[in-house]
Fold this protein.
Amino acid sequence: MNDISFKQPENQEEFIKYNLFRWEILRKPIGKSIESLKDDYEDSSFHLIGVKKEQIVGCGRLHFNNPNEAQIRYMAVDEKYQRNGVGKEVIRLLEKEAKRQNAKKIILNARDHVLDFYKKFGYIAVKKYDGSDTDIPHTTMEKII
């Protein structure tokens, strides 16, 4: 993993690649349009990408629901790089940013098949999440930081 750098997208070209990566991993396989990625927090969010040889291999996004509560969304890791620490580093850096901005808690709505991943980092399941437009079962998880 030493050859992967983590950073915020820095220009329009990187944001285009980032959005395409998010869509291809998270939304395209379930028939959702690329436009379905955008929400009201997009412009005010902290975006993070993991890059190897100019290719994005992982990403995540952090926004604030209120001054004390941050939310992680759009976590994705290229299948070839899963179980190699990429997701762990994305979580670590998003949590670091949440703490830097004085969040007291982080929430996320995890697809049920990845609950164990988030549990490894101290997130606990608090309730079923019914607000997803994906028809994939989700659970709201939280972590006090």
